[in-house]
Structures are given as structure tokens and as C-alpha cells.
Amino acid sequence: METKLTAMREILRQRRPAGNRSAPSFEEHTQHQCDAMNKTAGELEDYDCPKCKNKGVIYFVGEDGEIKCRECSCMAIRASMARIRNSGLQNLLDLYTFDRFEAEAPLQRLMKSSAEKYLEDENGGWFFIGGQSGAGKSHICTAIAGELLRRGKAVRYMLWKDESTKIKATINDEDKYDRLIAPLKTVPVLYIDDLFKPVYDDRGMRRQPNPGDISLAFEIINSRYIAGPRGTTIISSEWTMNDLQRVDPATAGRIFQRAQNYCLSIAPGKDRNYRLRRRKA
Ligand SMILES: [Zn+2]
């Protein structure tokens, strides 16, 4: 091996024009060209990437000596930002930050400290918060999603009611269905907002989620459960963990197992209502 390398170096040395040892070899010239291309700034916006200088690609010299390019890791972040922008979460990210979360009441203090602890915990797994509407669940989950996004994670926002309706409508078109559901299974961080958004009957009783919703939730949750640490999931829901156990033990069990350290359920109660309290203030 060593002899081979020495022989190669000798060939390269001999290739240089005689009497001009400082002139670059063909390989050096290619590398310089490649470096120059990498130094050129691109025009992509939204996110300032020091790696690719906002071109979205990184050039390198391949084994065959040709300049090739690969996609920069910032493209996943850009795609994620675009998704969040398109989903409408963009405006929420500025609004629903940790700083803006009012954590005076014990419940809100607990919610905030759990979220902060979760973000510090490298093995944090999933984050679940269920129960009482208006307690600030979406606010705290959006703040977590925003922080993960700032850390460069690809985050996908799923507003359950809207996206589940869209996906269920494609149930007879396998390709379309797969196209819609695949990213929800594979994105590194998925934030499901308002899982099984409840529908109330005339008497104000909460209806059970329909079988279509239950099976869709299981399909997504189970894929992410199997993905292990690559399937981080943040969930807000009006259903507590106990409620979910009654809706579908298989889905609830998987959520609980992944989120057990960060699994908050808020019991009903008027004083728990964050929006109500804020309006009075
Ligand atoms: Zn980049």
C-alpha cells in the first residue's frame, strides 16, 4: 500500500511542468476550483448556513477526480422552516415562546419547568400534555418545537384535525395516502397538535374518536415508536393519558412508554384555564 502511494506521488510530481515546481497539479487545481465554489455565497434565504454559504449544496472532489456535489444538511432545516411557515406555525413561534408563557399559577409553572427539563434531557424521548382545554398546552408545545427547530432539528407540525381529515380522504388512493403519511412517520421531530380533537354532541358530551382517526393515529405513533430516538414526538391533546387508554390502549401505551418522564395530564377545572385567566388580567 505504502509503495503504491509513493509511486502515485512520484507520478504526480513528474506531471508538473519541469522547472516550475510551484505550479499546481491537476488534482490540486481541481481541489482549488472546488474550494472556490464552496466559498461562493448562494441566495437561499430564511436560514444563514455557514457550511454551504446558503447555496444548499456542498462540492467535493470524487474518487474519479471530478467535482461533485451533495445536499447540505441545512436543506432539511429550510424544508422544515418552509413547512412551519406554510402550516401557519411561523407566526405562533414568535408568539408562543417560553418568555411569553405566563407561569404564575402552580400548574403553568409545572408545565413550563417540565418543558425546560425535557429540552435539557438528551434522552428526553417524547413530550405529552393532555387534558383541560385552554391551559396553555399548545403554547408550551409550540415553544418546545420552536426551540428544537432553532437547534437545527427538522420539525414537522401536524394540526390533527386538518391533516387527519386530508389523509383519511385519500384512503382509497394508496400512492397519495403514502405520500401524505410518510413524512409524518419519518420526520425527526413531529409535533401533533390537538390529537383526537374532540367533537361534542348536543348534550355537551365528548364523542369518542372515530375508527378512522384511531387507526391513523396508531399507524403514525407506532412507526415513530419503532424508530426509537429518531422518532421524537410532541403531542398536545384534550384527552388525558387515562382518556387515551380508554380510546385505544395500543396507541396510548406507546405514547406513555416513550413520554413517561414528560407525560402531563391536566384535570378539568376552571382555575386551570390559561386563556380565561389571561383574558381577565
Ligand atoms: Zn447549508
Summarize the structure.
50% of the residues lie in helices and 13% in strands. It has 281 residues and is of the alpha/beta class. The protein folds into two domains: 26-72, no CATH class; 77-280, P-loop containing nucleotide triphosphate hydrolases (Rossmann fold), CATH 3.40.50.300.
Describe this structure in words.
The chain has 281 residues and is α/β, with parallel strands linked by helices. Helix content is 50%, strand content 13%. The chain has a five-stranded parallel beta sheet, sandwiched between helices. Strands 1-2 form a two-stranded antiparallel ribbon. The radius of gyration is 26 Å and the shape is elongated. The C terminus is likely disordered. The site of zinc ion (ZN) has 5 residues, from loops.
What features would you highlight for this structure?
single chain; 281 residues; alpha/beta; Rossmann fold; five-stranded parallel beta sheet; two-stranded antiparallel sheet; 7 strands; 13% strand; elongated; disordered C terminus; binds zinc ion
The tally of domains stands at: 2
- Tell me the name of the CATH class of the largest domain: Alpha Beta
Describe the largest sheet: 5 strands, parallel
Overall mean pLDDT score?
Answer: 86
Approximate helicity band: 40-55%
Topology, number of strands: 7
% residues in beta strands: 5-15%
Q: How many helix segments? A: 12
CATH architecture assignment name of the largest domain:
3-Layer(aba) Sandwich
End-to-end separation in angstroms reads 76 Å
Round the Cα radius of gyration to an integer and report it. Answer: 26 Å
Low-confidence runs (pLDDT<50, min 5 residues)? Answer: 276-281
* CATH fold-type name of the largest domain: Rossmann fold
What would you call the structural class? alpha/beta
N-to-C order of helices and strands = HHEEHHHEHEHHEHEHHEH
Ligands in the structure? zinc ion
